[in-house]
Design a protein that fits this description.
alpha+beta; about 500 residues; five-stranded mixed beta sheet; 16 strands
């Protein structure tokens, strides 16, 4: 927490800067006032109250405002003022709308992704090529099999690190493991062995800068947080650009690299050198995109597995169906995507009673479906059994357990959406599930885990885990859990 008073007393410049910032935010708020009949969430503290309450616990705040305002309302989050859509049919309709009507890419720039992808990457021809390349690189079974050795090697190296480390922060270490895994799969073993440990904190810092709302508000090199974010990005890009150059001989790919199975080589083999200046930014974006949600899934799956002896025994016995159900329940209970979209034209919702205007930013939070008691009875209880199949068919992570008695399917959109759906699914979803499942099984088979902080023993062999940190506004919410890891052998 920044001590604003201390800053002001230190020098008059912060005081002036603070006044400018507050004035600018106030102007943005006033300028964005609408008279379209959509209610706005308000608290006793003007301007910042709603944002503060939302950040404490988004799910709790959305439930509260739904009772007060209905299923469509605005929340002023200081730098953005999205319209939240909570009705299931409306969320499904907007998720199914085309990019021409409800834009994912335009929304990215409103919520900070401009920090990750500079203007040079806005070339429409590149965007047209990049998404199919990601899909081929991370959704095809043969590509996943090619990445499996990378996942195993990074997981095993992290196990060695954990056993030597003693007390460790579970979610932070899973974050590191996933970034290392992503780098190996995208850039290869050699690059990661040489630069991985050094670059992990820089990737984590870049993601932190992206989620800083003021970096979205002040897109200027004169603003220190924005300047630091861009500098961090360019620092990482420099390492990857050197690797790209190492694999090229002028405008040709060096023969010695063509048989490599990492994602960078796939790009070079398929796309050649035409976009070589953009490849490093693309790689950085994919590493970041595949981090928070995957790391959170791995950490929570491990935490729940080791917190319940019954769960641990089933996973170690090789019960793939139960492991899949466990991972799905983690995705349901702890995933909190806001699913921001930019309206590219006027769209009627709520049975035609409300029109969302062109240019508005909307949010269709996944947690609304995740905690729908009509689909998931007792939704605040962690219960993998809700995802176990009721017939003889095996349930995979990507599959489903079948419809409920009221006709809804708890493993399908618009309820279960840990990685997006419809017109904007996560292009790396199968890769993410593969990493989560492979890493979890590798760790559980090899290690015992003792919780030493952030948890509470329940007296029956089980452990009570903490609530997630709801202040994280993207991906899978994390928690503070300390543990010690020992090899079983």
């Amino acid at each position: 927490m920044i001590d604003v008073k201390a800053l002001v007393n230190l020098h008059p410049l912060p005081s002036a800067l603070g006044a400018i910032i507050i004035g600018y935010i106030s102007w943005k708020i006033v300028a964005s006032n609408n008279n379209d009949g959509i209610p706005e969430a308000r608290e006793w503290l003007p301007f910042v109250g709603a944002a503060g309450e939302f950040r404490k616990n988004p799910m709790k705040y959305l439930r509260k405002k739904r009772k007060e305002l209905g299923t469509i309302f605005r929340i002023n989050l200081l730098v953005i003022k999205p319209i939240f859509i909570l009705d299931t049919k409306d969320r499904e309709m907007l998720h199914k709308s085309s990019e021409r009507i409800v834009s994912f890419q335009k929304a990215l720039h409103d919520v900070g992704v401009h920090i990750l992808l500079p203007p040079v990457t806005d070339d429409p021809a590149w965007w047209k090529l990049s998404n199919p390349t990601i899909s081929r690189g991370f959704m095809r079974p043969e590509r996943l099999r090619g990445y499996e050795p990378f996942i195993h090697s990074s997981t095993k190296s992290c196990i060695e690190r954990w056993t030597k480390k003693g007390r460790m922060e579970l979610f932070r270490e899973c974050s590191r493991m996933v970034i290392i895994t992503n780098m190996k799969c995208l850039l290869g073993e050699e690059f990661t062995a040489e630069h991985g440990d050094h670059l992990v904190p820089h990737f984590q810092a870049l993601e932190f800068h992206m989620t800083n709302p003021f970096s979205s508000l002040f897109k200027s090199s004169l603003y220190p947080p924005y300047r630091r974010a861009v500098a961090t990005r360019e620092y990482i890009v420099g390492f990857i650009a050197t690797e790209v150059s190492r694999r090229l001989d002028g405008d040709k790919v060096k023969e010695e690299f063509t048989e490599r199975t990492d994602y960078l080589q796939l790009i070079l083999n398929e796309r050649g050198t035409q976009w070589k200046e953009l490849y490093p930014y693309h790689i950085v974006a994919v590493v970041i995109a595949g981090h928070t949600n995957t790391a959170g899934h791995v950490a929570w799956t491990l935490a729940h597995t080791y917190a319940d002896p019954t769960y641990l025994a089933r996973v170690r016995s090789g019960d793939a169906e139960f492991l899949s159900a466990l991972i799905k329940e983690v995705g349901r209970k702890y995933t909190g995507h806001m699913f921001f979209r930019k309206m590219m034209e006027d769209v009627a919702v709520s049975g035609g009673r409300v029109v969302i205007r062109k240019g508005e930013l909307v949010s269709m939070p996944s947690m609304v479906g995740n905690y729908d008691a009509g689909v998931y009875p007792d939704p605040y209880t962690f219960d993998p059994a809700r995802f176990l199949s009721t017939d003889s068919e095996s349930t995979t992570v990507e599959g489903g357990a079948g419809a409920t008695t009221n006709g809804t399917n708890p493993t399908k959109p618009p309820y279960f959406m840990p990685f997006g759906a419809y017109t904007h699914p996560c292009l790396g979803e199968k890769f993410a599930w593969f990493v989560i499942r492979t890493a979890t099984k590798c760790i559980v088979d090899a290690c015992d885990v003792e919780f030493v902080g952030g948890t509470k023993a329940m007296g029956d062999g089980r452990v009570e885990l903490p609530e997630p940190d709801w202040t994280m506004l993207t991906g899978t919410y994390w928690a503070k859990v300390d543990a010690r890891v020992r090899r079983r052998d």
